[in-house]
Write a structure and sequence with these properties.
Rossmann fold, single chain, alpha/beta, globular, 16% strand, seven-stranded parallel sheet, 333 residues, six-stranded parallel sheet, 2 domains, 13 strands
């Protein structure tokens, strides 16, 4: 079985700090190679893999402003389809654009839909519905107009996340700095309950940061920037709770799973995939507003941190994710 794995090129695969799609591609690729699957990874030239690496873009365009995203994405996507006959299956993680190439090749195309950035992209998915195979990353993110082969939750290498039984005294926001992710709501909650808040992540919306985050940075609220893999476990594991007070329907939420792997419960607004990831009152709390979130803070001691870890070990591992994708590959081929 020969698989072409098409990664995005906004960030390196795996990413140095931020890049959730690229990180999932990396975990899946390395897991497949470990199981003996022949995988060629189409990613940036600085990417790291134990499979074969095929690249056109020298670096991620998000890290080099001299690279025109449209130009290098065009070259990147065309490369895999021009070589499609070499593979049994192409696994697309590059959103909707590669679908428009699918009618030009006979090699089957499996697309993992990592969320819908806008309703405006749906016509592309509708056009190729039935010709291309779709996988959803959560039940909540399935669109009623599309047919799916399966829902496959992301998995993480749990063994790389140190379990922490006794946390430090701070709340944590971990993710991109954007209105969608609820940074300001996390700040309001921390101020309300009088606990320190650590904010970690890339600034995706500078205006939002300048208006809703920067003015509140003080001795209680601190911003530490993006956190790479080497420090991620310590930051996540040291928190009393991860705050995920989102303002959109989260397709998945890797930081939620990562936090629980370290034993850290999650307090999240009950939207999108959150009920699929969090066992309410067992591994965290699903809440509807800041008042309920405040109550959840008061009940954090009722959460067994070992239960958080065990929940991830059973349901959200790389091995489980890889196993399910292999089953889909075989069924399609």
């Amino acid at each position: 079985m020969k698989i072409a794995m098409l990664a995005p090129i906004s960030w390196r695969t795996p990413p140095r700090h931020y890049g959730p799609w690229e990180w999932v591609v990396s975990m899946l690729t390395e897991g497949l190679v470990k199981r003996g699957v022949d995988v060629t990874l189409y990613a940036t030239a600085d990417s790291l893999t134990k499979g074969r690496l095929r690249s056109t873009a020298p670096r991620p365009w998000s890290e080099d402003s001299e690279l025109d995203p449209k130009v290098w994405e065009c070259l990147h996507i065309s490369a895999v389809f021009e070589e499609a006959a070499e593979y049994d299956l192409i696994h697309n993680h590059f959103d909707f654009l590669p679908l428009s190439y699918s009618g030009l090749v006979t090699t089957p195309l499996l697309t993992t839909i990592h969320g819908f950035s806008s309703p405006q992209i749906l016509p592309v998915y509708r056009k190729y519905n039935g010709r291309v195979h779709y996988v959803a990353i959560s039940e909540s993110d399935r669109h009623p107009d599309l047919n799916y082969r399966a829902t496959i939750h992301h998995g993480i290498p749990v063994e790389q996340y140190p379990y922490r039984e006794t946390p430090d005294r701070y709340l944590l926001f971990f993710g991109r700095i954007h209105h969608d992710k609820g940074v300001y709501e996390s700040i309001r909650l921390a101020k309300q309950v009088g606990l320190p808040l650590v904010i970690a992540g890339i600034i995706q919306d500078q205006n939002y940061f300048d208006r809703y985050v920067k003015p509140y940075l003080d001795d209680q609220v601190s911003y530490i920037g993006p956190v790479g893999p080497e420090k991620k476990g310590a930051v996540l594991g040291g928190a009393l709770a991860l705050l995920h007070l989102i303002n959109f329907d989260e397709p998945f939420g890797l930081s939620v799973v990562e936090a629980m792997a370290c034993g850290t419960p999650v307090i999240a607004f009950n939207r999108g995939s959150m009920p699929e990831l969090i066992k309410d009152s067992e591994t965290g709390f699903l809440v509807d507003d800041l008042n309920q979130a405040c109550t959840a803070i008061a009940h954090l001691k009722t959460i067994n941190r070992q239960s958080c870890r065990r929940h991830i070990e059973v349901n959200f591992t790389v091995d489980l994710m890889v196993k399910r994708y292999i089953e889909i590959y075989k069924a399609i081929i």
